[in-house]
Amino acid sequence: MRNDIQLPWEQERIIRHSQILVKSFQYWTGTSLLDFSGSPIEVAQALFEMPFPVLSHGTESDPIYNYGNRKALEFWEMTWEQFTQMPSRYSAEPMEREERSRLLNKVTTKGYLHDYQGVRISRTGKRYMISEVTVWNLLDEDNEYCGQAATFSQWTRIN
User: Fold this and answer.
1) pLDDT confidence of residue 97
2) What's the rounded Cα separation, in Å, for the pair 145 and 27?
3) What is the crossing angle of helices 40-48 and 12-29, to 10°?
4) 30-55 b/e with 16+ CB inside 10 Å = b?
5) Nearest to 51 by CA among 30, 79, 74
6) Where are the domains of the chain?
7) 8-157 CATH fold
8) Residue 17: which residues within 8 A CB-CB, separation 6 or more?
9) Which helix (H) or strand (E) segment is 67 a member of?
10) Rg of the Cα trace of the chain?
11) How far apart are CA 90 and CA 15, in angstroms?
12) pLDDT at 37
């Protein structure tokens, strides 16, 4: 029997955010993030269960992750609660953060970038080279900027 704790994709806020992730990706890239259509909750579940990481952060001065699908949580070795309290800059090692910041600034200007690669680090110190990364700006229901998201399909452990 299931307790009353909702999975992230079952929460109304995350269902709405999933729509923003999918629609913004389509807007900027002209392609679909999901090869799936359905009700908003079905889209939220499909996005959460994708076989590669999808993550996003908000617009705070030191942006905090506000979404990570199951693969992102596994990749960074965190729970939903841990991940959604972490400043996104901590996903990169200190020496990689300046490059990451330049990337995010480019995305802010251009709307999205594809084929980025860089080193990322998990909570327990596992280092990975990620590649084929797409980063895009998020636009809310009023077409206002509300953060950035990323997904990547390739990663290799480097330690």
Assistant:
1) 87
2) 13
3) 80
4) eeebbeeeeeeeebbbbbbebeebbb
5) 74
6) 8-157
7) Beta-Lactamase (3.30.450)
8) 56, 66, 67
9) strand 65-68
10) 15
11) 26
12) 84
- The whole-number pLDDT of residue 1 equals 41
User: Which one-letter DSSP state was computed for residue 44?
Assistant: H
Per-residue tokens: 150: 């990323």
Q: What is the pLDDT of residue 3?
A: 52
Please tell me the predicted confidence (pLDDT) of residue 4: 54
pLDDT less than 50: residues of the chain: 1-2
**Confidence at residue 137, expressed as pLDDT on a 0 to 100 scale:** 98
Q: What is each CA distance from 21 to 5, 97, 98, in whole angstroms?
A: 24, 24, 25
Six token digits for residue 10: 């079952």
Residue 94 CB partners (closer than 8 Å, separation 6+) = none
Residue pair 44/15 in contact (Cβ under 8 Å)? The answer is: yes
Span between the terminal Cα atoms of the chain, in Å: 40
- At 107, which amino acid appears? V
CB–CB of 63/147 below 8 Å? yes
